[in-house]
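go over both lines:
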Amino acid sequence: MVIAEDIATKDRPSPEGGSAPVIEVEDLRKAFGTHNVLNGISLSVSRGETLAVLGRSGTGKSVLLRILIGLVTPDAGSVRIQGQDIAGLSLDGLGAIRMKMGFLFQHAALYDSLSVGENVAFPLRHHRRDLSNAERKERVTQLLAEVGMEGNLEKMPSNISGGMQKRVGLARALALEPEILLLDEPTAGLDPISSGEIDELILKLQRERQMASIVVTHDMHSARTIANRLAILDKGNVVIEGNFETLQRSDIGFVKEFLKQS
């Protein structure tokens, strides 16, 4: 498969050399009934690094993200965030871990009854009660400016495009200054131009903030553009992990077929 070289690829941020992993997943297993979704996967991500997780629908990509934020409990294995095992944490302990994470849902998941500005302000109202109304408004304006949406503060989600909704979702994910960013299909449902704009935005945010990021995606072009490493899942297993060139050189049949169809 031949993919045109993306100019943004050469500007992809690099992880901090020698730094301890921010996210560590070891031998993670999860089944729903008789269906094994994750079959003992192990992954790690360092500060400033983006890992893209790819695979067919139903291979456990989104389940992995939900385990990382504590919405789904694994059957076995461990998840360590900044060296802390999240298994068995109290609600307060898990809440403290979640405060370090920003999450972009597949469909942005904006509140339809709230304006763009109110959506971004939502986590600040609940978790930063020390901020005054003026400080909160200033923070929201700054966040929207970061994602190129500063002129849309008063608009409702129904009055902006899908790509713009993703931008607002990103602004909201960044509201609490997370050290970890989890993105579920950030370019899904977008046209190629909007997808490219979202990729450029993610790269910009990574350069500026140096977060540890995991991106679940079906979009190979996007994954190649924004990620330092890629992992392909099949039947709950990591089939291959490495940079795009490593995937291209693979002799694994499933990997070859996956790249051909991507």
Observations:
- The longest helix spans residues 192-209.
- Confidence is low (pLDDT under 50) at residues 1-10.
- Strands lie at 23-32, 35-45, 50-55, 76-81, 84-85, 101-104, 180-184, 212-216, 229-234, 237-242.
- The CA atoms of residues 30 and 61 lie 12 Å apart.
